[in-house]
């Protein structure tokens, strides 16, 4: 026990400010290269090529987001973005996320998940799921207070 006036060892004390922040690991170079090549394909071949990337790398959030953006209709987009969103929640938990805290767009490795969540928001609205659309928008604002619905996505 310390005597009055002694200074306790505070080297183990960690002070934080604000909410904890989670940064997902970057996707492997192989996946990023395959997705880049797929997105460079012309027209309908682009969607098929991105689908092949998802098939080969089903944990790729960037690939699910790209596939959702290339969907043939709102229902297909909703399905792709929902899968990417749930895969993203798994990835966040695997990175230490405890269900709250920041997941910022400024970290490029978080963008696949955030694109999936934003795509789910948009697709939910398109199919009339307006309560889900609003929940997704609220979640985006909680994850990144700077969220904007005009974040850039993948080229169509």
Mean pLDDT: 89
| Number of strand elements | 0
Structural class: mainly alpha
Percent of residues in helices:
40-55%
CATH topology: Serine Threonine Protein Phosphatase 5, Tetratricopeptide repeat
Task: Describe the 3D structure.
The chain has helices at residues 29-39, 43-56, 61-69, 74-94, 111-126, 130-143. The protein has 156 residues and is mainly α. It has a single domain, classed as Serine Threonine Protein Phosphatase 5, Tetratricopeptide repeat (Alpha Horseshoe).
Keywords for this entry:
6 helices; 156 residues; globular; mainly alpha; Serine Threonine Protein Phosphatase 5, Tetratricopeptide repeat
Give a brief rundown of this model:
With 156 residues, the protein is mainly α. It has helices at 29-39, 43-56, 61-69, 74-94, 111-126, 130-143.
Would you spell out the secondary-structure blueprint of this structure?
Blueprint: H1 29-39, H2 43-56, H3 61-69, H4 74-94, H5 111-126, H6 130-143
